[in-house]
Amino acid sequence: MNTSGPDAASSRPNDGSMPLVVVTGGGSGIGAATAQALREAGFRALVLDIAPPPAAAADTLVWPDPVDVTDAKAMPDVVRAIEERHGPVYGLVNAAGILGRMHPPERLRQAHWDRELDVDMRGSWLACRHFGAGMTARGRGAIVNVASVVGMSSGPVHGYGPAKAAVINMTSNLAAEWGPYGVRVNAVSPGFTRTPALEMGIDNGALDAEALRGCTPLGRLVEPIEVGRVIAWLIGDGAAAVSGINLPVDGGFMAGVFWQAYGGLRGPGEPGQV
Ligand code: NAI
After folding, report:
1. Which candidate, 43, 140, 38, 139, places its Cα nearest to that of 95?
2. What is the atom index within ligand 1 of the atom nearest the CA of 51?
3. How far are the Cα atoms of 34, 65, 173, 238, 258 from residue 79, in angstroms, in the given order?
4. Is the separation of the CB atoms in 94 and 144 below 8 Å?
5. In contact, 198 and 207? CB cutoff 8 Å
6. Whole-structure pTM value
7. Nearest CA to ligand 1 atom 10
8. Distance separating alpha carbons of residues 20 and 190, to the nearest angstrom
9. What is the pLDDT of residues 41-100, one digit of tens each?
10. What is the position in ligand 1's atom list of the atom closest to the CA of 99?
11. Is domain 15-262 given the CATH code 3.40.50.300 in the classification?
12. pLDDT tens per residue, range 134-148
């Protein structure tokens, strides 16, 4: 158990090297932006993806082999190989994910529901479990799971929503389990974030960008780098006393969405505004 005060679990190794943070799903969207934010914050970022990007920023490490985070058999070997080549992993960001199909329950294919839970819930669990083992043994580490505002509310995404709710629950369970070993575990819940996956949903008509902006107090979609910078803060020592939380990064969406029932958000210059 870690009983030696705040410095014991610091991200900075004693030899002065830059701590290594693995970002699953780091090939695109929120994961790619998180790798950038981690570099800005002084970490070495290593991208792990089922589709490794052919070219990443010069100072980002990319694990060259495709890794499917749902592959329970492969994951321990992947962790071992990464640590042999790059040294101990201090941090983990679980950004690998697939967005949910929006079909009614009776039309949602079971195979799609299964895959959403497999990648979004089980994949996060497997990465936490296998990277977390080394962190607890070393007595230092930080994990951030990417959940979603949908995991805190309801929506027509019958596989994705429960998977993200499970990620939030898993986060607090692991925080309680591993805090005594110097490992912090947190989640972020992005609101609608302008990534390739989301833009595809807008382009094919599944999502309405105007409606999304309309129920977001900041009046816009979230940018991936804005999520990435919050994640980098949670990984870093600025958040050394933060564990077990689920932090929305949503432009105020969770605060504003209920206002739809009262006719929607007000704007500057409208009646009732000062
Ligand atoms: P994206 O599609 O741009 O990036 C996801 C990345 O994960 C891709 O590089 C993909 O190759 C990788 N990936 C997918 N399945 C994988 C697997 N089995 N193993 C390893 N890598 C895999 O998506 P985006 O939007 O950046 O999403 C990232 C995370 O953020 C997901 O967990 C998503 O659910 C979550 N999120 C996204 C929101 C949004 O509005 N874009 C809102 C809330 C949460």
Report:
1. 38
2. 11
3. 20, 13, 22, 26, 43
4. yes
5. yes
6. 0.95
7. 25
8. 24
9. 999 999 999 999 987 666 889 999 999 999 999 999 999 999 999 999 999 999 999 999
10. 34
11. no
12. 999 999 999 999 999
Distance 193 CA to ligand 1 centre (A): 11
Domain positions in the chain:
15-262
Kindly give the distance from the C-alpha atom of residue 119 to the centroid of ligand 1, in angstroms, as a whole number. Answer: 9
- Atom of ligand 1 at shortest range from CA of 120: 32
Q: How far is the CA of 151 from the centre of ligand 1 (A)?
A: 15
Given CA atoms 174, 61, 75, 81 in this order, what sign does their dihedral have?
negative
Q: Which of 24, 47, 98, 202 to mutate to test the pocket of ligand 1 (most atoms within 8 A of CB)?
A: 98
CB 60 within 8 Å of CB 48: no
Other CB atoms within 10 Å distance of the CB of residue 105: 9
* Number of residues that make up the chain: 274
- Distance in Å, CA 268 to ligand 1 centroid: 35
Angle at 239 between CA 81 and CA 31, to 5 degrees: 45
Catalytic center residues: 160
